[in-house]
Amino acid sequence: MLLRAAAFFLLLIASIRGQEFFVDTLAKPSAKPAGHKIESAWLDLRQIPAANSKPQESPEWVEAVSIVPGKKTAGLPESTIFRIRLTHPNPDAQVLFVRLFFDDNAEQKPQLTAWDESGTVVMQSAPLGAGIGLPTSESVMIPMISASTIDIEVPGDGKSIRGAYLDWMTHAEVLHPASAEHRELIPEPFAAMAPLHSANQDTERFGTVTASLADETIRIGASVSQGAAFQFSLESQPLVALISFEVASPNIASPPEVYVNGENLGAVSIILPDLADPAYRGQTASLLRGMRFQYTGWIRAQKLVPATNLKAGPNDLLIISGPGTAASAIRATQIQLKYLWDKSDYQLQTDR
To answer: What is the DSSP letter of 209?
Structure first.
């Protein structure tokens, strides 16, 4: 009933020729005056036959993209390496944001490695993804002070890699409340909200209790038997409750649904990123009939639970995929319970 999972990545440009697929140079846009805004890059890494591919342009700081044979190690499957050669657009460009889009297969987790001109490894990521078997994306920050080449290595023929988004990061001073919980406030391109993190232990603030139901990733389907089930106990009935979690690869028009104590409360509300985000993946049988969109990344989902649906003692929560969604996954599931506080702000209205 419950399975585990997780993930997140993006951009660039090159001609595609089957397994050959990349040329060693990329089309460049016309030169722009110094001091202009640094452009981001989208790399389409799908291995599309040359007859169906279209040449793309890349910013001047992307020199070349190619596929090179992976290392052959006894006892290990062969791998594919996508090699991206870069230059620095200006002296201040020292950290590169890389978001990789891929199918999150357990036996094909991609890994990023940054090299300098001498062939020395500058940085290497951990294997990306959690093996949930869904299209997803993950992000990595790469220090590029001396690096000039990035390798994306993945076991197999590389067809699980869909694309990469590259953008240079700049520095800025950020203020945050001293009493608030520390959160990752680095804004990712197109992101609507910062990642959701479950608390290690229950907390209470201003009459509101926050409790983690499950931090791990759980794969879900559209039937009750494929849902993620939770049980939690309450000392007393709250005034209202809020269920929050992150969902991967949802159909944006058919979000997950929530059941509390056997009653279907309907679909959750999801916070959608900018529509320019390359994580949106269209699904259609005919363009004339319209297109449905799946978000191949993680987005915030929430559902308000009325007090009448909760009770003192054990309570049951079930989360399933929305209708028409074959499979997705959730993580960082938590609940907030609002009780009367001695400083609660409320108005008493009499019926007329």
So the answer is: E
Cβ neighbors of 303 (< 8 A, separation 6 or more) are: 242, 243, 258, 265, 266, 268, 269
Q: How many helices (H) and strands (E) does the chain have?
A: 0, 22
Long-range contacts of range 275-280, CB-CB < 8 Å, 24 or more positions apart?
276/190, 277/189, 277/190, 278/10, 278/11, 278/42, 278/101, 278/163, 278/165, 279/10, 279/101, 279/137, 279/190, 280/252
pLDDT digits (tens, 9 = 90+) for 54-112: 777 789 999 999 988 766 777 777 899 999 999 988 888 889 999 999 999 999 999 99
DSSP-derived secondary structure for 47-114 = ---GGG----B--TTEEEEEEEEPP--TTS--EEEEEEEE--SSTT--EEEEEEEEE--TT---EEEE
pLDDT above 90: percentage of residues in the chain: 57
Structure tokens at 74: 């006894």
pLDDT 10s digits, 163-187 = 999 999 887 777 767 776 655 555 6
Contact 208, 337 (CB under 8 A): yes
Rounded Cα distance, 130 and 332, in Å: 14
